[in-house]
Amino acid sequence: MSQLAIKSLTKSYGAFKVFDGLNLQADAGEIVVIFGGSGTGKTILLRLIAGVEEPTGGAIEIGGHDVSDIAPEHRGVGMAFQNFALFPHMNASENIATPLRAAGADESKVKAGVAKVAKLLKIDHVLNHAPRELSNGQKQRTALARALAAEPQILLLDDPLRNVDAKLRFEMRLELPRLLRQSGATVLYVTQDYKEAMALADRIAVLANGTFVQTASPEDIYMRPATLGVARLFGDPAINTADTMIETEGGAHVVLGGTRVPVAESYRGFAGREVILGVRPEAVELGSAGVEAEVIAVTPLNERTVLLLQNPNGWEFLASLPSSAASIPEAGTKVRASFAAAGTHIFDRQTGERLHG
Amino acid sequence: MDHSSSLEKILRSVAITLVLVFFLFPIAWIFLMSLQTNETILSIPPSLAFTPIIDNYTALITGQLRTAAGSLQLNFMQNMFNSVLLSVCSVALSLVLGVPAAYAFARFKFRLGEDIAFTLLSFRFAPALLVLLPLSLYFKTLGLTNTYIGLIWVYQLICLPLILWIVRGYFEDISPDIEHAYRIAGNSWWRTFTRISIPLAKPGIAAAGLLAFIFAWNNFVFALILASADKQPVTVGALAFVTASGIQYGQIAAAIIISITPTLALALYAQRYLVEGLSMGAVKG
Amino acid sequence: MAELNITRVDKIYHSRKGDVHAVKALDLAVKPGEIVALLGSSGCGKTSTLRMIAGFEEVSNGSITLGGKAIHTLPPAARGVAMAFEAYSLYPPLTIGENMSFALKSSRLPQAEQEKRVKDMAEMLEIADILNKYPSSVSGGQQQRASLGRALVRDAGLYLLDEPMGQLEPQLRAVLRGRIKHYLREHNCTTILVTHDQTEANALADRIAVMEGGILQQYATPAELKARPANLFTGTFIGEPPMNVFAADVSSAADRVSFTVEGGTTLSYPASDMSDALRQRLAQTPRISLGIRPHALHLGDGPVRGKVMACQWLGDQTHVAVDVAGRTVVSASQERVSRATGSDVSLNVAARDLHLFDHASGNAIAHGGTLA
Q1: How far apart are the CA of C57 and the nearest CA of chain B, in angstroms?
Q2: Does residue B30 sit in the same domain as residue B123?
Q3: Among residues A14, A163, B45, C140, which is most buried (max CB within 10 A)?
């Protein structure tokens, strides 16, 4: 039995439909990342589960029980907010103690509980500070500590790393999995950073247009995206796309910028279909054969180098090579590009769905 | 840009002094008047060289006013008591009614919500006389004329809109997430309201209460029409000095000084609070 | 197309609480056609520097010349500088297209040429379809592109770009970086880019000026910043994930040099991996700060042993956090790696990938076995 179940959940504001039948199951102790762009309703979903907002239709079940009629304070969830939402008139320790106090724990238990979670999050030295005296990183840890303090069954984390600087975000990303596993809670984690999603999730649920377009492991999402939309959301630089058509004369292939690019024979069944070819920049290989292109610009990106390439027919695409690669061509160089099968996907041009060859 | 020349500094000081003189002169003048007899006040040209007397103040406190035309009974101290009673009670009532209402207007979007809030504010726009005519008829019918309860009720026209609108802005500035966080932590709605929302809006509530108190204290026309001498506040009480034998400028000045002292003291004491409170509510973030 | 020289420039803000020295004795030379990034976190002085070049702030000391002509005393409009603002600053009553052509009105270009420029620029920045819309009705990303376009269509001696890509849609960012870099090169634009995002600086700039606390920390090419950071600040600031840094005790024998880091791990290398000069220096330096970039710390047989805390695959690289004697050490790989949480691993690093810093001052001692 799943710890958390969302069944045909709908939510509308007037005529505006945010969710149009959401379904999601999460097992005890599982980390599910809700991923989507801004305005897709990720935060609203967490609020519905927490009970501070009411759904228009459908059901939310926690531990097998419908919680529709249960007030937020009795649902047994913990939540951390993107803006931290610390109580400004209480110090860090009192903030963390609120869920314990509300549960009626006696003072010694409250103290022990706060001390335990503060140690875990390395904020024991700032417990007496008021929120305004805390750095952003400490605020964020305090907010997490407060959410974890009462050991809730369900933990809702609303983009908790959004408002901390890049370095802290990176450190927390490495630290969080262990912390969340220790808590044993079922975690719904909202983010719009795909790297965070891939790093933390057991499963990722990609939210777009009011539904979960794909709910799968990070590997499946990245290697086998269900739609072009999902493929474009994961990856930096984003996947290259080109409008083309599957042809079968002399082997299954597509034509890209005037050059035949072979595809798996199994796509033969889609002959004549108008498609979009998606190629991940790291799947682009430069060599002596393939699509003709000129290097327009060379832009280093961390340990990799991104090349902006342009085919004589006007198709523009990116290649991402390891910076340690033997030779990175300079701007103005003419090259030929081929595409590794693992990072190449074919999508239906009408529906955007990936075609399974 | 960053630097200002000494000439600029001098000009700035001069300008500030002029503004100060402009605003403080009337108060200073009234204070001087309160220490003089009617004769020295009315002498032309006015002179700053006079022997200060405290007779005006003693007359107000003892309630005995002796003039050339004879002795007159005053109940200025009763007026003072009335002012305190009316202002304190009406502000208290306004807070009890207004703060929860302000919260409702801030947090819940309900049908006609904006219209109701605006209607309440519009009582402040209307000339008092417009409201007074129907009110005095109601008061007669309901038997509220010349009662404290009636006056406190009418004073809600002054206090309630102020408190409602200022405090509403404050509640709107509190992130709903903070309230949600407290509820999810296991607290009921009422507890969240009393433990989170009210404490966080406290500066705004204090500023609004203070302002409402000053407005209530300064009100003149409601009490003039709806109450008689024994229930009237100081603002109306000062009229008693316009006697048959002439206008008692000295006593009026002394009465003014005594009556503005509480509000002035309060405003000065809470000045920083007041300015911070009022501007914080207005500016988001 | 002009050369920019900033010489001994200070910026001091006077306030009641005391003076704030925002920029300290800054020297910066930008060659004609060069793209330079001012990189640092907020409060490092980069924005003050930009505002002094543009003319929105006076210089407290020093001089700024553009094409050999002193400009720091001129009003902003007379400096021949084009700027894209972080807050976009588009004129609300004008359409996106009018905003972009507005800057060209005062030039003596023929009307047809003006129109063509705006059209080409709009196509490059993918805003051709919104030229007739007003700024308030388009997204933040589109406004930012329009603001960038308005600056770039002009002919100016110098282009100042203040956080020009922070709001861009992630899916467009990489392509636009490439196109903008190409455009700046083609038109030989001398450009100063102010950013807190090292990814942007690395992608676009020929040279990066790293600033912190009002002081220029290092001015070098992206590759050099990475390979030979001048001090610990630059070393840890540049590079993603950030460099691992350990305090280490040095012991030199005739044929080996060893570094013992906190927790007791010892990294030992043949003396031949280090230059003679470095060996001599290390003989007198018992304690150093040792920097190792995550991408240089490889999983496999090696002296650094610990337990895996987290192993995170991000699509094009894997980050492995390892608990080494209570400290978190990060190893990164371009391959897909999987290691179970809690499993034992060992890590190695080659001598050529070591960065040595003075323990007290943080100044670089050596990179890859040779003195800095």
Answers
A1: 9
A2: no
A3: A163
- Which CATH number is associated with domain C4-228? 3.40.50.300
Mean pLDDT, rounded, of chain C: 94
Per-residue pLDDT of chain A (357 residues; tens, 9 = 90+): 689 999 999 999 989 999 999 999 999 999 999 999 888 999 999 999 999 999 999 999 999 999 989 999 999 999 999 999 999 999 999 999 999 999 999 999 999 999 999 998 989 999 999 999 999 999 999 999 999 999 999 999 999 998 888 888 999 999 999 899 989 999 999 999 999 999 999 999 999 999 999 999 999 999 999 999 999 999 999 999 999 999 998 889 999 888 899 898 889 989 999 999 999 999 999 998 899 999 999 999 888 999 999 999 999 999 999 988 778 999 999 999 999 998 999 999 999 999 987
Helix, coil or strand: residue C26 = strand
Torsion of CA C192, C195, C197, C198, to 10 degrees: 30
CATH class of the domain comprising A4-227: alpha beta
Q: Does domain A233-348 have CATH number 2.40.50.140?
A: yes
C244-371: CATH, from 2.40.50.140, 2.60.40.10, 2.40.480.10, 3.40.190.10: 2.40.50.140
C56 touches chain B (CB under 8 A): no
Contacts of C58 in chain B (CB under 8 A): 1-2
Angle between helices B271-282 and B249-269 (to 10 degrees): 60
Residue A82 distance to chain B (closest CA, Å): 9
Letter for the amino acid at C314? L
Identify the contact set of chain A against chain B, taking CB-CB distances under 8 A: 47, 50-52, 71-75, 77-79, 81, 83, 85-89, 98-99, 102-103, 146, 150
Encode burial over B159-194: b for 16+ CB neighbours within 10 A, e otherwise.
Answer: bbbbbbbbbbbbbbbbeebbbbbbbbbbbeeeebbe
- Segment B193-217 mean pLDDT: 91
Final residue in a domain of this structure, among B47, B73, B99: B73
Tokens of A76: 């047994």
Q: Give just the sign of the alpha carbon dihedral C232, C237, C243, C245.
A: positive
CB contact B109 to A (< 8 Å) = no
Using CB atoms, which chains have 3+ pairs under 8 A with B? Answer: A, C
Residue B56's Cβ-count burial label (10 Å; 0-12, 13-18, 19+) is buried
What residues of A are in contact with residue C173 (Cβ under 8 Å)?
A: 237
Q: Is residue B1 part of a domain?
A: no
Q: pLDDT digit string (tens) for B52-68?
A: 888 888 888 887 776 66
Reported ipTM: the value is 0.91
CA dist B137 → B119, B128, B231, C250 (Å): 22, 15, 18, 98
Partners of A60 in beta bridges: A6
Considering only CA atoms, which of C195, C202, C198, C204 is closest in space to residue C177?
A: C204
The confidence score (pLDDT) of residue A336 equals 95
Domain boundaries, chain A: 4-227, 233-348
| 3-state class percentages of chain B: helix first, strand second, coil last, to nearest 5 | 75, 5, 20
Of B54, B73, B92, which residue constitutes the final position of a domain?
B73
Given a cut of 70, whether residue B285 has pLDDT beyond it is no
Q: Which of C174, C239, C330 is facing A318, going by the closest CB pair?
A: C174
Q: Tokens 């920045």 — which residue?
A: C125
Of C202, C312, C313, the CB nearest to A300: C202
Closest-CA residue of B relative to A157 is B181
Q: Which chains reach chain A with 3 or more Cβ–Cβ distances below 8 angstroms?
A: B, C
3-state secondary structure A267-325: HHHHCCCEEEEEECHHHEEEECCCEEEEEEEEEEECCEEEEEEECCCCCEEEEEEECCC
Answer for the pair A74, B179: CB distance below 8 angstroms, yes or no: no
